[in-house]
Amino acid sequence: MATPVKVYGPPLSTAVSRVLVCLLEKDVPFQLVPVSMAKMEHKKPDYIKMQPFGQVPAFQDDDITLFDNVSCHVFACSNFDGSRLKWDIFLKETDQDSRESGS
What we know:
Layout: E1 5-8, H1 14-25, E2 30-33, H2 45-50, E3 58-61, E4 64-66, H3 69-79, H4 86-101
Parallel strand pairs: 1-2
Antiparallel strand pairs: 1-3, 3-4
Helix pairs in contact: 1-3
């Protein structure tokens, strides 16, 4: 079995929750790695290497590291099968529009 995607951050964070919902909807196995904001874990050097702004979430899939929840959505919709999300539809329509306009 492939290594599950890792999502770093507090589970009650809105930004982290958005990523988790996307992964759940796509039925992607993931591991939530809690990051304590109260203990300033998001400002420690090891975390800053993953997320240079010291914010949540941070997202890892093999050798890919992302640190913005929109980037995580685009990555999940582009790289994982599963149910179609509105974001999937948007990406396909945007791609189709760019091909038709020659961009």
